[in-house]
Amino acid sequence: MFSKVLFLALIPSILAANFAVSVGAANGLTFTPATITAAIGDTITFTVLSRNHSVTTTTFSGAVCPPPPGGVGPNGFDSGFLSDLDGSEPTFTYTVVDTKPHFGACMQAAGAHCRAGMTFAINPNSTQTYAQFLANAKAS
Ligand SMILES: [Cu+2]
């Protein structure tokens, strides 16, 4: 009986996936990959590979850039600034808690990184696409 309970408790961690996203690879203003399709319980680990960036949720349209401190919710998030200026490659891990679209960007330089296209989407869909979000960011 105890072992059956233990086994059932382990199932979510067995099935959950972890996605790795590079932030600022090759000194670029990029999240790679820029879109992630994830299920509840999956984790996304962002690793900053250059400069000083943030991983922050924002709105799909309107005032996209810069994303506000704390991020835009519900279930938004904000890594705060993560500097790789010392070569430490800092990470931020988000655990997915819903399957709704979440759009995010870097808040650095008063939104300049965001407007340059430093953006990402978790679970974009047919009405809220990453391509449209990116266009909204560049125009914001
Ligand atoms: Cu940045």
From TrEMBL:
Q: What UniProt keywords apply to this chain's record, in alphabetical order?
A: Signal
Q: Where is the signal peptide?
A: 1-16
Question: Gene3D superfamilies per the record?
Answer: Cupredoxins - blue copper proteins (2.60.40.420)
Q: Which InterPro entries match?
A: Cupredoxin, Ser-rich/MCO-related
Residues folding into a coiled coil are none
Query: Which protein are we looking at?
Result: Cupredoxin
Which species?
Mycena rosella
